[in-house]
Amino acid sequence: xxxxxxxxxxxxxxxxxxxxxxxxxxxxxxxxxxxxxxxxxxxxxxxxxxxxxxxxxxxxxxxxxxxxxxxxxxxxxxxxxxxxxxxxxxxxxxxxxxxxxxxxxxxxxxxxxxxxxxxxxxxxxxxxxxxxxxxxxxxxxxxxxxxxxxxxxxxxxxxxxxxxxxxxxxxxxxxxxxxxxxxxx
Length: 185
Description:
Blueprint: H1 20-45, E1 49-54, E2 60-65, H2 68-75, H3 87-92, H4 98-140, H5 159-184
Antiparallel strand pairs: 1-2
């Protein structure tokens, strides 16, 4: 015995939804659909897109290609941005040579993407370095109760400055805690 067939896609009357649960579900689904359409528009046409949707509860949802900041600063500069760009500059621009405008935009986006990848690579390298330092500190603390009792002779040149910074942070935290106890006494 099967279940009855669904009603499928139906046309609905566009009006305010009174039921708050249905309203939240509708907001979520429509927002997702809108974001998908905006993403597809950007992908298919190469358009710079910024979408900000505020939920009835005041929460903001944003989508931008290449990023919200990039699009806003380019087409609607913030006060204090004196780069001469912005929406008015684009509208007044001589569009008789649209190819060069597109090439400049693509070059700018590719530059941003390249810098982002370089930054990610540097971040990954730094994380790997810090994990190696942490591993050496773990090995140096083997058989000891606390990390600050590590055998500093077992640490190398790369690990000693990190270990010293950690010790200074520990000392500063203990001093702050002591000061707060003394102040409350």
